């Protein structure tokens, strides 16, 4: 079940969304947007029907008008250099981010920057050392829920 936060007077209410994406039943209301966002994160992490329909990347507009992204990614994976990134490495990275406050960025590698220009094609071998991803946003929260890595932030 998709959910959305809507301001109702002085409160921030988490609603279920109807099939036509209109606001449905109120799940709960909170005094602050932060509390409502935490509730939303918990729903998407724990509610079975939310997990089934949840896309890996979700975007929503916050009460302050800025757009927030939430990324749900799996645990262990093989990176671009064919190295395995283990769940332990992801857990350690989450601890490091919490300790330092440096959560990194949301980068898009399918459209990359090369010498200051956007390129939408595979890089040549000679370009590999010079490519940079397109930075989409800045992460401000990271957590592990079981074997799922959850990161969120605002778009730049």
As a percent range, the share of helical residues equals 10-25%
Instruction: Write down the Rg.
Output: 18 Å
Q: Which segments are poorly predicted (pLDDT under 50) over 5 or more consecutive residues?
A: none
Given the C-alpha coordinates, what overall shape results?
A: globular
The average pLDDT is 80
Calculate the terminal CA-CA distance, rounded to whole Å. 28 Å
Number of helices: 3
Q: Structural class, from helix and strand content?
A: alpha+beta
Can you list the strand order of the major beta sheet? 4-5-11-10-8-9
Largest sheet: 6 strands, antiparallel
- Compute the number of strand runs: 11
Feature tags:
156 residues, alpha+beta, six-stranded antiparallel beta sheet, three-stranded antiparallel beta sheet, 3 helices, 11 strands, 47% strand, globular
What does this structure look like?
With 156 residues, the protein is an alpha+beta fold. It is built from 3 helices and 11 strands; from the N terminus they run βββααββββαββββ. A 6-stranded antiparallel beta sheet has the order 4-5-11-10-8-9, covered by helices on one side. A hairpin with a 5-residue loop joins strand 2 and strand 3. The longest helix has 14 residues. It is globular and about 55 Å long. The mean pLDDT is 80.
């Amino acid at each position: 079940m998709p959910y959305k936060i809507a301001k109702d007077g002085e409160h921030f209410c988490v609603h279920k969304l109807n099939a036509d994406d209109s606001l449905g039943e109120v799940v709960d209301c909170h005094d602050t947007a932060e509390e409502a966002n935490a509730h939303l994160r918990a729903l998407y992490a724990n509610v079975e029907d939310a997990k089934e329909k949840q896309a890996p990347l979700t975007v929503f507009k916050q009460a302050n008008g800025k757009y927030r992204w939430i990324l749900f990614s799996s645990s262990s994976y093989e990176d671009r250099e064919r190295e395995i990134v283990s769940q332990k490495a992801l857990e350690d990275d989450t601890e490091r981010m919490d300790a330092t406050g440096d959560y990194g960025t949301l980068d898009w590698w399918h459209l990359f920057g090369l010498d200051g220009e956007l390129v939408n094609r595979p890089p040549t071998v000679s370009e590999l050392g010079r490519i940079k991803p397109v930075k989409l946003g800045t992460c401000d929260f990271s957590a592990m829920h079981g074997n799922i890595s959850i990161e969120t932030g605002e778009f730049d």
